[in-house]
Amino acid sequence: MDDELAALAEAHGVATHYEDANQRRADVDADVVVAVLAQLDVDASTPEAVRRALAAPKPPPRTLVLHEGDVLDETGTIRLEDGGEVELPAALPPGYHRLGDRTVIVAPRRLPAVPRAWGWMLQLYAMRSAESWGMGDYGDLATLARRSAEELGAGVLLVNPVQAISPTTPVERSPYSPSSRRYANPLYLRVTDVPAYHRVDAETRARIDALRPPNDTGLIDYDAVWRAKAEALELLWRHEEHREPEGDLLDFARFCALAEEHGPDWRTWPAAQQDPATATPSHERVMFHAWLQELCEQQLARARDAAHDAGMPVGVVHDLPVGVHPGGADTWAWRDAFAADVTVGAPPDAFSQLGQDWNLPPWRPDRLAEQGYEPFRAVVRSVLRHADGIRIDHVAGLWRLWWIPPGEPAKRGTYVHYDAEAMLAVLTLEAHRAGAVVVGEDLGTVEPKVTESLHEHGMLSSAVLWFQRDYDLPDHPLVPPEKWRESAMASISTHDLPTVAGFLAAEHVRVRAELGQFEGPPEGEYEAAARERDELVELLKQEGVPADDLVTAFHALLARARSVLVLTSPQDALGETRQPNLPGTTDQYPNWRIPLPVALADLFDDPRVRRVAAALAAGRGA
């Protein structure tokens, strides 16, 4: 790497090397660095261009971060978030304030302690009840919250992302590729909980009831569910009074109305419709989609209230995806905030040996700072409107993201760094205002400072049984749960990893081998899986946990974790072998389409669920 190019890359937060999953230095190719700099409007195509860019004056910081009690030792008048003014130097209250053209973020130093609890990690779409239409819905979420607390002693529910999709078919199945992270997914609406359903005449209600798709399909049919619900909601819409949407909701509803007409990706629309300033959506359709968001807010609020009324000490925690669809509502409205031609992902590791490309555009760190982090603020605030907590998927993205230049494979990328202090300040301030807990998913190739900073701010990190090893010792032995971090949300697995039963049967190896995901022969992978299984069984023996029923045994082991939160999934409790998502696949595997093997009404009385719940509740002292 040329010294001048390396210096330019460092000045713009672009990594020229990094530590890989095996803790070895990996150098980034120069042409990758040049391509990523170009996405930040920095020309590094020739040595002369590099020297010109290095000589260009650096603009002053546009965002300043302080913590509660800090004195801003400058002169001048600062305009507070509430409209008041303060003469500097002074200590400022928490909030987003303005000093000239700069934003001053003042955040609490840390969040309050999180109560100890156990709970579920839910793939909401996988639930099926007598009331839901072909997949789980917000009504099922309320039922799960109430019955899990009252009958099983659960204290927390972590829900898969329920952010908004484009209102088109085929429906985007991945909850981690939403059209917008600011709004909710109407696919999860329970039609029969819409107030108008109970006011319409009997004939209309019968027409709506006849639209209900079956619940007994082998895999979830998102398109059939959306078509049925959309038609039913159209019938109810005619019997409702409507308010004119404003602000961000208006922008989102305008996008949805245009997507219905022109398709889900605004980059393919007619030129005039691609620009929010010149777009001409149907007013009636704008009103309809704004109304759907009102319904989502009502039903999400009811689910949260159900958790509170049942006495859950934590409540409902919603998952925030790392990004949005490149042609979705957020990039349409906030175009300048994204690096539109880049995708983010992850470098190669043990589970994804070719790296991962998530096909999501990243924030531009320079534009976030210029805008006082308002786009990020809006995203966090929108999730916490109906949540008791937020889980940040790939929380290391607050520090750095793996940018993949146009046309390159996932492994040909590099890290771009963000102002983590500012991102954490926004997260801390918004969570403090909402009284919410924050969990960071810090699995995979993550720098130690990420986890350390989370804990310093009173946030939780993540602990997964499969990965809890001492990597400083030879052979990386498993760490007993009583030595896990206390400030963590612990689980056996995650939605991207094998279920307990799938791990025991090496189903994850079989599927990945069948799909050609290994660079070498699969025999070595089977042998590695068998060694891991034997090590875990040996840990059970060391901990004195009976191993006659390994699914229950692993949960009894998890229950011993020091971590304040311990979670499992209904899939794990029920012995499901198929994992919800297989990274690196799309249609090759039924990602996000696998229903629970039992109906929601039967879940709470299933003896396997009862055994697992009893083990986890006992570990929390319940």
Automatic annotation (TrEMBL):
**Keywords associated with the record:** Carbohydrate metabolism, Glycosyltransferase, Transferase
- Keyword Glycosyltransferase on entry: yes
| InterPro entries xrefs | GH, Glyco_hydro_77
The record's section on SUPFAM superfamilies has: (Trans)glycosidases
Which BP terms from GO are recorded? carbohydrate metabolic process
Task: Quote the EC number.
Answer: 2.4.1.25
Q: Name one GO molecular function term.
A: 4-alpha-glucanotransferase activity
Q: Which reaction does it catalyse?
A: Transfers a segment of a (1->4)-alpha-D-glucan to a new position in an acceptor, which may be glucose or a (1->4)-alpha-D-glucan
Q: Name one Pfam family in it.
A: Glyco_hydro_77
Family from the record:
Belongs to the disproportionating enzyme family.
Q: What is this protein called?
A: 4-alpha-glucanotransferase
Instruction: State the gene name recorded for this protein.
Output: malQ
